[in-house]
Amino acid sequence: MAEQPNKMEKLVSLCKRRGFIFPSSEIYGGLSSCWDYGPLGVDMKRNIKNAWWHTIVQSRDDVVGIDTSILMHPRVWEASGHLSGFSDPLVECKKCNLRFRADELKEQKCTVCGNTLSEPRQFNLMFKTFMGPVEDAAAIVYMRPETAQGIFVNFENVMTSTRKKLPLGIAQQGKSFRNEITTGNLIFRSREFEQMELEFFVRQGTDMEWFDYWVNARIEWYKKLGIKPENLRLRPHPKEDLAHYALCCTDVEYRFPWNWGELEGIANRGDFDLKQHSKFSGKSLSYFDGDAKETIVPYVIEPSAGVDRSMLAFLADAYDEEQDKDEVRVVLRLHPAIAPIKVAVLPLSKKETLVPLAQQIYSELRQTWATTYDDSQSIGRRYRRQDETGTPYCVTVDFQSLDDEAVTVRERDSMKQERVPIAELKATLADKLAL
Ligand code: GAP
Predict the structure, then answer these.
(1) What percent of the chain is helix, strand and coil (3-state, nearest 5)?
(2) Spatial distance between the Cα atoms of 319 and 237, rounded to a whole number of angstroms
């Protein structure tokens, strides 16, 4: 696909127009960098999370799931290092008071008014709130900035309750919150977002093998779900850029319309987290290896992905425009597993004779797949609408259907049409939509 100028603007407009993503609290002027997912967006996001859960948890014998609370004991964030170290350097324009991340500025001048900036100061990214009715320091709690810590503090509970052996992964999806200084590019960086994280516990000595395994598995996952390989790359972090807990880290990056950006980080966190939580809680977080007859503190490999960022990458990668006769066809070439709607049933006309058959097909198909029904405007327009939201197949019910008991199935990408007997429609679609 050739480079498309203004692709982000077009994508933002499509997301709003078709009900993928809306600005939060829009009728009040919006709330900076907070987003709402509309009827199509919520299904697409859910499909991404389900695809991840299926690959990471359901299809494996060595990973289990968990769902921990967003608010955690404040000591968790002391142990994890977030209270003292989870900060970005912030500078403020002395004239217009705009704030910037010092490490993202090329020049030490305000990028808006050109005036001088303050000295950098460290700004903690965790959101604070109060638990209980009294707003005093004793009741301060934090909105979790990552889901990972909920996993570490439950290590003992999970090992004991599942009676599993190492290597064992614990996976979690859920909201995280960061009071980011700079946000932007739609849902790429926001203050409230969702993560999909796996903490994979292994014996020290096998950690780098598992690290390589997960780096490879994670980039392959994006490819399998349709992201073009040329738009994906791996970026190993230089030693000096590593987070305080990481022995090594590699990012999966995507070529977003504005530049390459991180989709997911895969880190070897060593035994940092379990040891820290043991130290701060006074509870031993170790593992008895029955085969080696020794007690160890496992190392952990962490593939940590952003749901919203993945969604933006899937949308940007799928967005295409092509000349079709004298019109431009906008099409989202989404993988069927990710597409919010799988099938659209389109009666050729609203005439009474067609409606009962079309409605019957619609009600049958929607028991199995996310299906929509559209009978307004010309069939050409309706195909376009479905192309724009990434629906892989349209089923058209026409007057001939009443005689030959067959319908037309149209494929989104090639626009090829084939006649399929109604009796075989479900099996045909199942075959085409098989993942
Ligand atoms: N537990 C490790 C961890 O949280 P991270 O690199 O800070 O690592 C992991 O975050 C992923 O979460 C990122 O690769 C990104 O996809 C997503 N993410 C982080 N901050 C985000 C934000 N402000 N907005 C949207 N997604 C974000």
Answers:
(1) 35, 30, 35
(2) 30
Residue 195 Cα to ligand 1 middle (Å)? 7
Peptide bond into 167 cis (omega under 30): yes
Question: DSSP state, 292?
Answer: T
Residue 316, token pair as written in the block? 């940007």
Cβ-based neighbours of 130, under 8 Å, separated by 6 or more: 139, 140, 141
pLDDT tens digits, 161-200: 999 999 999 999 999 999 998 888 999 999 999 999 999 9
- For ligand 1, whether the C-beta of 189 sits within 6 Å is yes
Strands 168-177 and 63-65: parallel
| Best residue for ligand 1 mutational test, from 86, 127, 173, 195 (most atoms within 8 Å of Cβ) | 195
- What is the distance of C-alpha 110 from the center of its chain? 33
Q: How far apart are CA 171 and CA 166, in angstroms?
A: 15
- pTM score over 0.70: yes
DSSP summary character for residue 57? I
Whether the CB of 124 sits within 6 Å of ligand 1: no
Residue 197 Cβ < 6 Å to ligand 1: yes
